[in-house]
Amino acid sequence: MNDFFKDYNPWGQGVFFLGIVAFTMFLRHPVVQVFSLLGALVYNWIQVGLGRSLKTFCMALGSGVFISILNPLLVHQGATILAYFPNGNPLTLESIFFGLSAGAMFTSTILWLSCHNRIMTSDRILYLSAGVFPSLSLILSMVLRFVPLYKERIKTIYACRLGIGEDLSQGNLWRRFKNALKIFSIFVTWSLEASIETADSMKARGHGLPGRTHFALFKMERRDWVLLGLLAFCASTCILAAYRRKFKLVIYPMVKIAKLTSFSIFAFGAFILFAFMPVFVSLLEEYRWKYSK
Q1: How many CA atoms lie within 13 A of 6 on its CB side?
Q2: What pLDDT band is residue 290 in, cutting at 50, 70 and 90?
Q3: Best exposed site among 55, 83, 136, 151 by fewest CB in 10 Å?
Q4: Roughly what angle, to the nearest 10 degrees, separates helices 30-74 and 93-119?
Q5: Which region, left, alpha or beta, applies to residue 211 given φ > 0 means left and ψ of -120 to 50 means alpha?
Q6: SS3 breakdown of the chain: % helix, strand, coil, rounded to 5?
Q7: What band does 71 get if pLDDT is binned at 50, 70 and 90?
Q8: Helix H or strand E encompassing 66
């Protein structure tokens, strides 16, 4: 199955990833944690295939297992004592439950962030921030551009100095130090000169003037508005359920979970739809692609 969610407008993608990471981190209910983890696993599988998704899952699971084991060893709160450590500290059921919850949260968050990094590229992030924070967007674009650019400049300078025998691998220690200072001086001078040229270019193009437009590769289509509407509906339902304590989970001093009601079932369904939204979008687009004729 192809990942058709990556072809949608960045606004829908940004709202989804912001919401799913926030819900995963702040809603500790077992239903939320389980389906958030399942949604992240399935979407990773759609994005990169079974092999790479399992590799990513194992890496994320390592952090989750470490936290799950570490919490009962360090935290001894809770009313249900299962055993005692050799130093006399108790092992409680509540600390184990909290460790499992925290481990699942960390694992799900890492998986969702890996999905985010594959979709939300620099051009999409700049598209989201250009209309609201144009100056910040310019700085961000320059930073993202200068990181690989500076690496190439360092390689170019080093190759030139190597050709004339004044690099870091020739001569005694003092001569290598002087060569390193020369390379650094050339790099700083080149970078400052390029920064002045960039500033003059942006001023000539009218950056910062009122009414200036900016070019974007993306545009909002009907499917993007539908996606935003569904995400807004599911997110508002989950927020309302959290406000009404339908996702309530108390671990210390004893594990207490909110009672199951018709509204909480509806809220769980809304969260499942939210967590599996990229999967449902890919399934729908796959069906439309195969059976459009």
Answers
A1: 15
A2: confident
A3: 83
A4: 120
A5: left
A6: 75, 5, 25
A7: confident
A8: helix 30-74
